[in-house]
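Researcher: Structure for this, please.
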Amino acid sequence: MSRKEREGPETEQEAAVGDSPFFTGVGRDAPPSEDPDRMEVLPVAPRPGTEAVLDGQASRYFALLDASVGSLQQRAQQLIDRVNDSRKEDHTVMSGFRESLLLKVSGLAEQLEERLFHLYDLNNELIQERLQELAEVMERVGQAEAELRQVCRTVEAAYHDLCLQPET
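Model: Predicted structure, token format:
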């Protein structure tokens, strides 16, 4: 416990200690020792004829002690409740973060998909142009091949005519 916490208002237990004959010489009434956080309990001899009074005071002390224990249990439960509330709040924040992140990722995925489709369209146009050019080239090659065959047949026919003619 820090010194500032000890300087604050009295707790129920400190108030009960001040009223109890069992704790005389404890805390503020005790002379300061070397360790300021250490409390010493000094025994007090019962006075003759005060035994009945002590029984009443003892039961009062134990009632105060039970109240202090109950108070500590209540504070512990409050701390546990605060931790659980904090965890619920963290869970809510994380769920919200997850949802917003999913929305952003979905939006980015859609944008990427649109860009890909746009690129596919551009590439399809280029491919169509190239295929059209290829078809035109293949048609010209076919025409050149047909002309070459015609030339070959003509050369072959001319060769046969030359070869078959008698020598004069």
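Researcher: Any notable elements?
Model: Residues 1-46 have pLDDT under 50 and may be disordered. The first helix runs from residue 3 to 7.
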